[in-house]
Amino acid sequence: MTRFPWPTGTGRRLAAAVAAGALVAAGCAGPAQVGPAAAPEAAALADPYGVLAEALRSGQPPLQALAAETFIETGRPAPREGIDPLADAADPRVRTTALALLGCTRRPELVPLLRRKQRDPAPTVRLAAAFALAMAGDASEIGALRDALASPDVTQRRTAAWLLGLMRNPSAAGLVRVKLEDLDALVVLRAAEALHRLGSAEGLEAVRALTEHERHQVRHVATRLLGRLGEASDIPRLERLAQSRYLDVKFAAIAALARLGDLVRINLLLDVLDAPDGETRVLAACELGETGYTPALARLAKMLGERDPLERTTAAAAMLRIEAADQPWRARALVDTPPAPRAAPPPAPGAGRPAPTPKP
Fold it and tell me: Is 246 domain-assigned?
């Protein structure tokens, strides 16, 4: 197996920043610090769902937001006793993501809570409450999301695009489409992601362009998204990005290549799970969750027993994402394998010469 040079100094700080940033819910503020390590519950050691349930109860906003967002992305039902109280969590990122998750459950008994959260001091929380009410059947609340797309507050625009994509209603595509021309690169990427959820590939060219953005943080998000939206023709672009000196871009490109069926570099990410520093392991695990690469599950499962809660939660989130992948690597390999050439048919009775062998 190819050994990967572990980052030190600036590289480690970069890996830590990117890994923590990946835990933040869409459009919300920057990450809070994760608290001191705690011993994992014995029952959760081999159960990624249990690790995420533990993260919801942890009181640590980055872990809570990551767990809630994972339940949204994978379609797994979150434990009510873990998610319902988070609608009133202290951190607005957690409240926003929790309300988005509650909206995805379409539980009518939550309407009084959602009406109350429309008076929340945080604009993104109010938007998530409007989204949840719309999902519960109040179509008038879509107006709040539409208005937020035109807000001068970039955080509201990002959050509104994310939430409209979660609605999975193709009629929302017209609202989101105009944001492909937004001045903020992350709004554009959120819009492209939303359009993909809504069944449109209109944002793909914008995503490709933003993989060349001057800021590596934007390149990272665009590269990861290209793995979800891209095509086989994007593999050369991703191969170039896999040579990046920035670990976030490099790892995202390797994961995107694997998602598109190119497994040449996947061992690099698996190798990094054995890095001596936790920040790098977290970054690798986070990107492995994008791959749909089922052989990574056994390696990620070993991280569920780590004492560091960030490592446990990131590994658990990655495992659930791999298990929920629309087209895991095994299925894609079968789809992309050309069919074997057929044998020439026997000559027809009475024919003067055999039929020509068809070209493969």
Answer: yes
Residue 317 sits in a domain whose CATH number is: 1.25.10.10
Retrieve residue 325's tokens: 């992948």
| Nearest one of 111, 63, 52 to 89, comparing CA atoms | 63
Judge whether 325 lies within some domain. Answer: yes
pLDDT of 238 reads 98
pLDDT at 34: 56
pLDDT-flagged residues of the chain (< 70):
1-46, 326-360
Count Cα neighbours of 10 within 13 Å in the Cβ-side half-sphere: 2
Task: Output phi, psi for 261, to 5 deg.
Answer: 100, 0
Distance CA 196, CA 237 (A): 20
Q: How far apart are CA 158 and CA 24, in angstroms?
A: 13
Q: Which residues contact 340 (CB under 8 A, 6 or more apart)?
A: none
Measured between alpha carbons, how far is 60 from 36 in angstroms, rounded to an integer? 10
Structure tokens at 253: 């490109």
Query: Which backbone phi and psi does 10 adopt, to 5 degrees?
Result: -60, -40
How many residues in total does the chain contain? 360
Which residue reads 């009475």 in tokens? 350
Lookup: tokens for 178: 């105009």
Tens digit of each residue's pLDDT (9 = 90 or more) over 180-237? 999 999 999 999 999 999 999 999 999 999 999 999 999 999 999 999 999 999 999 9
pTM over cut 0.90? no
Count structural domains, the chain.
1
**C-alpha distance from residue 261 to each of 36, 82, 235, 308, 320 (Å):** 38, 36, 9, 32, 19
With both helix axes pointing from N to C terminus, report the angle between 123-135 and 154-166 in degrees, rounded to the nearest 10: 20
Structural contact between residues 285 and 23, judged by C-beta atoms closer than 8 angstroms: no
In a domain, 37, yes or no: no
Query: Is 281 a member of any domain?
Result: yes
Domain that holds residue 313: 210-337
For the chain, how long is the longest CA-to-CA vector?
87
- What are 341-359's pLDDT values in tens digits? 444 444 444 444 444 444 4
SS3 232: helix
